[in-house]
Amino acid sequence: KAGVTQTPRYLIKTRGQQVTLSCSPISGHRSVSWYQQTPGQGLQFLFEYFSETQRNKGNFPGRFSGRQFSNSRSEMNVSTLELGDSALYLCASSLSRDLYEQYFGPGTRLTVT
Amino acid sequence: AQSVAQPEDQVNVAEGNPLTVKCTYSVSGNPYLFWYVQYPNRGLQFLLKYITGDNLVKGSYGFEAEFNKSQTSFHLKKPSALVSDSALYFCAVRDSLYSSASKIIFGSGTRLSIRP
Questions:
Q1: Does the pLDDT value for residue A93 go beyond 70?
Q2: Which chain A residues touch B4 with a CB distance below 8 Å?
């Protein structure tokens, strides 16, 4: 069974631009969560989607948004990029809302210049 | 509010020796505790979890963790370290598995280095 895939793996953007990251969960998994990992702030929860609905949201500004499609694939979007948005963005999927066994993708490394 | 602390940024152990990576937590209700490992340029891998029941939890790759309610700790342990165990380890906690208000909180991570 294929694992969680994230595209692209690496991305370089300029301040003020917007970016969309994609996550394909493990087949059959309906829950997708997004995390931001930075050296300074560590791992921080962004949001969680289940059955196309956002179920939970972390403490991030409205520039960060996401959605989930009917096939459980998820995208997150960051608008008006800032230098501080440079991070590794991780996606994790789980079979249900029972989130304790999450399977993580390799991440998308976003660099904002 | 829930929180989790990993007091050591780095732990150095000789191969074959036992290892411990420390984690303490704070939650208002019942704690649900997890350990993840991250290898370079890769996402996190689930190691083990404590939900309820036996305080000693066994996980992947020979790791285990001991839940201690009175000390609010959930230390990760392995009896005999391998060089391949060298990685970044994260402890995480949440106070509910099902509440829409429950978020998972990760510790700052501990870098484990096993020398041959």
A1: yes
A2: none
